[in-house]
Amino acid sequence: MSADVRRVLSAQELAAALALRHRVFCEEQGVPEREELDGRDDDGVHLVAVEDGEVLGTCRLLLTGATAQFSRLAIAPEARLRRLASALLEAAEGEARTAGAKRMILHAQTYALPLYSSNGWETRGRRFVEAGIEHVAMEKPLA
């Protein structure tokens, strides 16, 4: 992997990250745009995986005291299987630790459980449907 994984650096990069999310969630997975854009982007820390100026992956981290909520992980189809998702998870964990969070939470699409489990996340509770897709809550202590 030669992509640079970091916080967004400009409004242009954030726009590219949001466009990637739209492509993955709305176009590819059929998530309604009103559910993908939840009004919390202005409150989040946006991370990106950038290579040759192109945003290939993105995620959002909402920091609220001792808990950090990881969400909106999207990888461009042509860049999958390059460990970009794991790199974004690691970067988000670093951001959460720096902000003083003691744990991270997320709602994982169930097809992605192996990704999260291999990165130290544990399931919590029953499966549920969100935006028409089966999910499960997961948590990762940062102690």
Rg over alpha carbons? 14 Å
Count of distinct strands: 7
Helical/strand content category: alpha+beta
Helix content: 25-40%
Strand order of the largest sheet: 1-2-3-4-5-7-6
Draw up the topology in text.
Elements: E1 4-7, H1 11-28, H2 33-36, E2 45-51, E3 54-64, E4 67-75, H3 84-98, E5 103-109, H4 113-118, E6 122-130, E7 133-141
Parallel strand pairs: 4-5
Antiparallel strand pairs: 1-2, 2-3, 3-4, 5-7, 6-7
Key features of this structure:
alpha+beta; 30% helix; 7 strands; 143 residues; single chain
Describe the overall structure.
With 143 residues, the protein is an alpha+beta fold. 30% of the residues lie in helices and 39% in strands. The chain is built from 4 helices and 7 strands; from the N terminus they run βααβββαβαββ. It has helices at 11-28, 33-36, 84-98, 113-118; strands at 4-7, 45-51, 54-64, 67-75, 103-109, 122-130, 133-141. The protein has a 7-stranded mixed β-sheet, with helices on both faces. It is globular. The relative contact order is 0.17. The model has no long low-confidence stretch (mean pLDDT 96).
